UniProtKB/TrEMBL annotation:
GO molecular function, one term: DNA binding
Helicase XPB/Ssl2 N-terminal domain mapped to chain residues: 482-604
Source organism, top-level taxon: Bacteria
Alphabetical UniProt keywords: DNA-binding
Name assigned to this protein: DNA-binding protein
InterPro entries per the UniProt record, alphabetical: XPB/Ssl2_N
Positions of the UniProt region annotated as Disordered: 169-191
Amino acid sequence: MIATDSLADWLGARTDAQLVKLLQLRPDLAVPLPASMSVLAVRAQQRASVLRAADDLDTLEFAIIEALTANEDARTIGTAITPLSKTTLHAQLKDRVTKTAFTAALTRLLDRALVWQTGDGLHLTPSAAEALPWPLGATTALPDALTEPEVTSALAQASPAERALLEKLATTGPRGRTRDAAPGTPPDRPVPRLLEARLLHRIDDETVELPVTVGQVLRGEPVTDPHALAPPKPTLTKHAPAEVNAVGAGEVGELLRDCADLLDALGRLPAPALRAGGLGVRELRRLAKQTGVDEQRTGLLLELLAAAKLVEKGLPEPTPELDTTDDFWAPTPAADAWLDAPPATRWVLLAQAWLDLDRMPWMIGLRDAADKPIAALSAELRVPHAVRDRHAILGLLGEYPSGSALSASDIGRLLAWRMPRRRRHFRLDAVTATLAEAATIGMLGRGALDSAARALLHGAPTSVADAEAEMAAALPEPVDHVLVQADLTVIAPGPLVPELRARIALVADVESAGAATVYRVGDASVRRALDAGMTAAELHALFANHSRTPVPQSLTYLIDDVARRHGQLRAGMAQSFLRSDDPALLAQVLAAPVADTLALRAIAPTVAIALAPLGELLEQLRAAGFAPAGEDSAGAIVDLRPRGARIAVRPLARKPYRPSPPSDEQLSLLVTELRAGERAAGARTGQSVRTDGTRTGTAATLALLQLAARVGRPVNIGYVDAQGVASQRVVEPIRVGNGQLDAVDPVTGATRHFTLHRIASVALLD
């Protein structure tokens, strides 16, 4: 109780700015609003709140906590604690830390109210010692005798039984009890061999301990030394910022192209969802094969598209013809608008979705607790700390100048020093995979953050617009020309302008994608363009106007030959009809077996009707070797290509609401309310009235308030606001009437209005 009272006094002596900073660093202390400093002090010492506040402490700050803990443990039973002063504490650590760094670390602990002062003495908040990420004394003990390379070499020589024993200690706890630690144990047993190799430390005849470095190596964590109170210095690799931006832009081009191909594949054939909600291995392989992308990259792209709401789970329209009623993964209507947007805009949507993704796509294919592979889009990929860790890794890169690259091991080691309680989150495999994902998305080039990624990570209100502008500047300018070759290939020397890209994709098939895309023109691709409504003259003009090389005769002959045969048969709705200017050709169709399948019937020498829908009519005739074309009611050729399945976004599948942290102004108001509550709690009261809801109680309350207003005495009122929150506050009544009390708040000097029937108690102050 004494500690709580002293902490409350210390908190009351803090400035408003310092209290605002405390609530910023520990927002849980403000919910609900504490009625007084004593309540705030009690909350600040609660174990759950202390452990939460300690998550972001670094190694130096934990060394200060450990030194204060050791001082409290060293006292003699029955005697009072002699608190350490700032000077004494720094003297204990001065050989390993500068005074500037020590002062900054102590200030951060004071800002969080994990350490507080009475005079020159420093006191540790209870439960802070429980937050230590290592055994007590690790920061004062000398480092382990074995270095990381020596540990790795020794582990390679350990037998399976010895390795199993070490891994057990690494996962369950560093200390273990065994009789083999006693002298005289046969030297060929595992424990004596590990003691000899210095992979274990002997505590006593029945206890051994796993060295910190050995445990970190076994768990795959960054190897850190609690004794080192200065952050490790990483090795920087410098690259030209322009080179970094160019490499990132190249990755963006491939990313957008692969995502478009994946949306097209899912639109043509939606992928059945597993009962658990993910995507099966077979479907993932099918999509990877169709798009020409490896499975791991396909899984990442699916996660990005789903996070950006371009792909969703449900029943698409049209529904796939499969013997199942389960859900499917298919594109949403938003995918069409995304495909038509500028490249930089499309990239920003994907990059922002990845930064806010509470999942780890790199875990796809790993084994879960049941030894089953983790599926893409499954719930097993959800990790609560994914967003925080991703921002920590990229934010660290953003602290260094543009073009600076760090290795994954250096990033993990530095983050583990800064956040030792979360050091297991920064294992080498996790950091490496996160950097690989960032590079795939185009946020890294040569291992360094590009300009667009730096703008996106900045967090300013204009960060999205700035990132889009940076990426637009880094991406190559679209070109409006192609190079037609004699072998019927068409080379796009860069990204094409949208209109030209759509037309070339219609008349030619992609043969190889990259910075320069190679298309190939063939019979089927020319027929596809004619089916979409283009004429032979338009195709000739397309290549003549946009090719920087002469159009070869072979391409001209190909277009003319396909166009000559195309459209001699015209199909329409009857359900459908078939017409031809050549009666002999129509007679040939009616004599073919396909006529019975389609129930074709001639109604004129040049016209026949069918019971089959138009799409089926065209498909069956083409399969039979004919080349019909669809037309509308005016006789113009129509584009009957399938548009792909789409699935509407369900309201429940939208991004959950995330409340924004309170602003500085809101926290300042909270501190003002806290000051008022503290004044009310510490005021000495005289005559008091507590209303009971009766007419007599209300009259007594009104009379006491009127008396206070007449004689100018402050009162302590108990008030219940419209939300039902009760509070105590000291006010100076001015007037009472019309069901309302007008009073001056002595803390702020502002006039406030209180509804009389919400005043639960009134007490005159001496």
